[in-house]
Amino acid sequence: MERNVTFLPSVQAYATVIRIVFGCGLDQKLNNFLVELVRKGDKGRGFSVMDLLKAVGEAEEEGKGSLLLLSRLSSALVKAYANLDMFDQAIDIFFQTSPLGCVPDIQALSFLMNRMIASGENNMAVATFMQIERLGLDADANTYVLVVQALCRNEDTKGVEKLLSRLLNSEPRKCSVFYMNFIEGLCLNQMAGIANLVLQPLRDANILVDKSDLGIAYRRVVRGF
């Protein structure tokens, strides 16, 4: 009697393909590849995502290059899970890779939060930011805009006030470029009113003191209304 036997590629084979694709700079092809890979699940692949990360790491020489590749791969995996609305699995990647020293980058977190907000998971987006920030990721202006957006959609005015107070009183204080990008992001996302609330405290705290920066910031707010 003939039996239909399915041979699954080994985790080492997948690791080799991923290293080649990364090396060629074919990030978009890799993103599509990873979406299909995570869609299969552990059973369909024959190995876990962490097995894959370890296999890629073992194939690389130890050092900065290895950690950089693993960080890029973990970031791509977060985006792959997010594209499939598999948010819990995407969050797990951050915590599973933290001990390896190759946590996904802040752009991956922003991508994940954006997908959560688009899916109506505003509470999850805020909670995810708060949890993952503890891993030491330095959130950029875009990430904070997403947090404000999620809070606003939940009509959580106290949450917005706390976040703004924290930003304005952060130590070490963020640079003026951060706040300029933050204001621009708020205005582009129909939150000019909140951007306006931030302007005067930034002037009072001597964060935005350059007349050119202030002029640009005010014009952005006016255009946003």
UniProtKB/TrEMBL annotation:
It comes from the Eukaryota. Belongs to the PPR family. P subfamily. This is Pentatricopeptide repeat-containing protein. It comes from Arabidopsis thaliana (Mouse-ear cress). The lineage of its organism: Eukaryota, Viridiplantae, Streptophyta, Embryophyta, Tracheophyta.
